[in-house]
Amino acid sequence: MADLGIPQNTIAVLQKYNFVFQKKFGQNFLIDPHVLEKIVDAARITDDDCVLEIGPGIGTMTQYLAERAREVVAVEIDRALIPILRDTLSAYDNVTILNEDIMKVDVGQIVRERNQGRPIKVVANLPYYITTPIVMSLLENHVPLHSITIMVQKEVADRMQVGPGTKDYGALSLAVQYYARPEIVAHVPSNCFMPRPGVDSAVVRLTIYQEPPVRAQDEKYLFALIRASFNQRRKTLANGLSNGMGIPREQVTAALQEMGLPATTRGETLTLKQFAALSNLLKRGNAIS
Ligand code: SAM
Question: N or C of the chain: less Cβ packing under 10 Å?
Fold first, then answer.
């Protein structure tokens, strides 16, 4: 089967099927064999792995994954791509193509049916219009995952990886770092895609923690607190949390004091560990008051 990482082969497939790119689906296909190798290497795929690929496009990365994995399940929303995928992947008997919206797929069921409930690996060149919802739903639903290796917009990769005190630090950084260890493994310029996106990209590997690195008594409450803190980024936590969550200012100030932090503390300066401590203190306070 022709290597679709080579631009001429991708062009031939697109012409054969008169394929029209759908902007609304974030379709930018990879046309660089080195980048494809790098992604699959970073995902550390072995012949024992079941891999979920989100958005296979015309099957370019799927070919690379199918060469190394025991099994690949590829979920593609665009109906027009399904006959193309059946053609480009016809040489592989270890690929299942599902014509679905990944946001509506029960990934837990795929894990149970295809991998006896053991953690799978997710690999994707993600559609950028929906990156955060896809990543957050995979993480928050506690699906058994080993890792998520994804191509995303460079700024999004930066936001996933940074710590407090930087402008990119926010709710996404904390949510990702609660569930996984993020590492940027490659920077990818726009000329590696067809058509070229208007932004640079990066490959990030999220290695899922089996146990969260911090203890939060109530995970939902912790994330509500984090969101409220960053919704009003310029405000102190005492003001932000009283406006956003109706927690009395004095209660926030008292909790901060117990943590040895000043009343003027802003959310953007707190580490994940400090957010967890604050949420545990405030939750306890709520239960008492
Ligand atoms: N994997 C291919 C590659 O690397 O060349 C294509 C990547 S392209 C950036 C994103 C792909 O995700 C497209 O094929 C698009 O149709 C598909 N897609 C977009 N939204 C989706 C969704 N909600 N569920 C599943 N696939 C989706």
Answer: C
